[in-house]
Design brief:
With about 110 residues, the protein is an all-beta fold. The protein has a single domain, classed as predicted glycosyltransferase like domains (Thrombin, subunit H, Beta Barrel). Strands 1-2-3-6-5-4 form a six-stranded antiparallel β-barrel. The two termini are about 15 Å apart.
Length: about 110
């Protein structure tokens, strides 16, 4: 798992659950096709998810459950380059807590 202990401002404990999701740009500003990916860790108001492309802090991202199409919109707090060409995004869901039980907990293929 990817851990960045230098981040501050986190008020909730992150749990190391893998949740399979789809990421998309809700504003459609990027020539970007949604991607199936996974979380590294989650909390009620945030998550760290993997992505094939870099995102900029402040960008909005739509996170959708692959099992029942539950959607949540969040903002990118950070984007860190990881292994194998992946990026890890720190997401913040300010509007409302996310009920991760509505999402599918699973290993990523």
């Amino acid at each position: 798992m990817f851990f960045d202990r230098s981040l501050e401002g986190r008020h909730e404990k992150r749990l190391p659950f893998v949740v399979v999701v789809r990421l998309a740009d809700p504003q459609g500003q990027q020539a970007y096709v949604e991607e199936k990916t996974y979380s590294d860790n989650i909390s009620p108001h945030g998550a760290c998810v993997a992505s094939r492309r870099p995102w900029q802090p402040g960008e909005e991202v739509e996170v959708t459950s692959i099992t029942n199409a539950v959607k949540a919109c969040g903002k990118v707090v950070y984007c860190r380059h990881g292994k194998n060409g992946r990026y890890f995004l720190g997401l913040n869901f300010r509007e409302r807590p996310i009920r991760w039980s509505n999402f599918s907990y699973a290993g990523f293929p």
